Amino acid sequence: MRRRMRRSGLLRAAALMAAATFGLACGPTLPESGPPSPPAGASPASVASTANSAPSAGTWIAARVEQPAAIEAAPTDAPAFCSPCHPILGTYIDALVSFHGGLLAFGFDQPPSHAALWSSADGAAWRRVAGFPAPEGSSIAAAVAGAGGAVVAVGTSGGRAAVWSSTDGASWTLTLLTGPGSSAAETLTAVSAAGSGYAAGGYVESATAVRTASLWRSPDAKGWTRSEATVPAGPSEVTGLAAVGPATLIAVGIAGDERRGTAAVWRSTDGGASWSSVVSPALAIGRMLAIASSRPGVVAVGELQDQTGAAAWYSTDGSTWVAAARTGLDNDGLQMVMTAVSPTNSGFVAAGWRTDAGNGSAVVWRSSDGRAWVHLPQQPTFSGAGLSSILGSPVLMVAGTMGWPDTHAAQVWTAAGG
Questions:
Q1: Which residues have a Cβ under 8 Å from the Cβ of 317 and sit 6 or more positions away?
Q2: Which end of the chain is less congested by CB atoms within 10 angstroms, N or C?
Q3: In the chain, what percentage of residues exceed pLDDT 90?
Q4: Burial class (CB in 10 A: 0-12, 13-18, 19+), 182
C-alpha cells in the first residue's frame, strides 16, 4: 500500500484475521456525526480552554468527525460471523496540525482514493472542508505548519508526488512534482519545515513494486527540487522528517522490505539540499516510521524487525542512535507498532496500535526523554482503532481510523496534557 497508515493496516489485517474468523463482532459503533464545527481560525484561548477542561491524559474523548454518507450508513455494530461483513470503504486521518489558532486534519477517502481535509476550532467537532483539491487517486500522508505562515501537506496524486499548500487554511494550491517516469509512481510520506523553507521525503515505486527513497526541498512550498541523497542498495523509503537546527534535518525510514527491513537514517546539514546515510548498530533492530525533535534530542519510533513489538530510538543530533528500553513496548510477542510521535512540554508522546484478543486497539505512550516509554492505560473507545497521527500541543490529541475490521471511519480523540 502507498502510505504509512495503509501499511500498518495490512500488517494488522494479517495479525487479526485468525481472531476475526471466530465470530467476533464486526467492530465498534462508528462515532456519531455532529454538526459541522466552525472553520479553523478560533483563538488560541479557545483551544487552550478545551485542553484545560478535558479529562486526564489517561481518559480519551472521541470527537465528532463529519463523514461521507456511505460511511454514516454502514452498520458496524451487529454481531456477525464474517470478516469483513461489508464492502471495504473508509476515511483515514494521517496528519494533525495546529494552524492559525485552529486545527486541521489531513488524510483520504477510499475507494477510490481522494485526499481529504477536516477543520476544527476546538478538537471536539470536525467538519469536512469543501472545495479542497482532491483528484481521484490522491491521498495525503503528512503535513506541517511552516515558519513562513503556511501549512503544507504532502502525498500523491495520479502517481506523482503531490504538495498541498495554504496560507489561511481555506484556500489551497495543489502542486504536482516532476514525475519519475512513465513506468514508476511517487509518493511523499513526510514533510518538515527547513529554516524558512521545506523538505519532503517518500519513495519512488517502480513498475515491479520496488521502492527507492526520494527527498525534495523547496523555499516556498511551490517550487520543488529533488535533493541529492545516498540510498542503500535494494529497496528503501523515507517515512519521517524532522529539523534539529536551522539547516540540519534528519530523515528516517526503511532499508529493505517494508515488512521485514530495518531502519534507515539520513542527515542533511544544508537545509535538505543533500543527504548522507547514517550508520548505527541500533538501526538493525527494526523499522523507523516517524520522528520528532525537541530539546531533549531526536526520537524515532516504529516496530521491531520481526514484528513482535514496538520500537523506539533516541539520538542527540541524529548521528548516533540508541535503542530505547523495551519496557512498555512489548505485547506478549504479538504485533504492536508506534506510527507517530510528537514533542510536548515535558518530553514526547507516541501513538500506534496493537494486536489483541478482539479487533485490535489504539495505543498511546509517554516518555520524558525518549529513552524509556510508559504505555498509557487502554481505553474502551480505542477498541477497533488504529492511530497514525499525534499532536502534543496546544492540546494532546491523536487521530487515525476506527471500525475495524469492516468500515474504517476517520476519528480524533482528545485528552488533557501535552
A1: 244, 248, 297, 298
A2: N
A3: 66
A4: exposed
Residues 118, 65: contact at Cβ < 8 Å? Answer: yes
Pairing of strands 274-278, 228-229: parallel
Grid cell locating 379: 481505553
- Name the CA dihedral angle for 360, 364, 367, 373, rounded to a multiple of 10 degrees: -20
- Report the C-alpha gap between 150 and 148 in whole angstroms: 6
Could you tell me if 102 and 169 are in contact, meaning their C-beta atoms sit under 8 angstroms apart? Answer: yes
> Between β-strands 173-176 and 310-315, what pairing exists: parallel, antiparallel or unpaired?
unpaired
pTM of the model: 0.85
Structural domains of the chain, ranges and CATH numbers in brackets: 4-415 (2.120.10.10)
**C-alpha neighbours within 13 Å on the C-beta side of residue 362:** 33
Q: What whole-number distance in Å separates Cα of residue 383 and Cα of residue 353? A: 10
In b/e form, how buried is each residue of 59-96, taking b as 16+ CB within 10 angstroms? ebbbbbbbbbeebeebebeeebeebbbbeebbbbbbbb
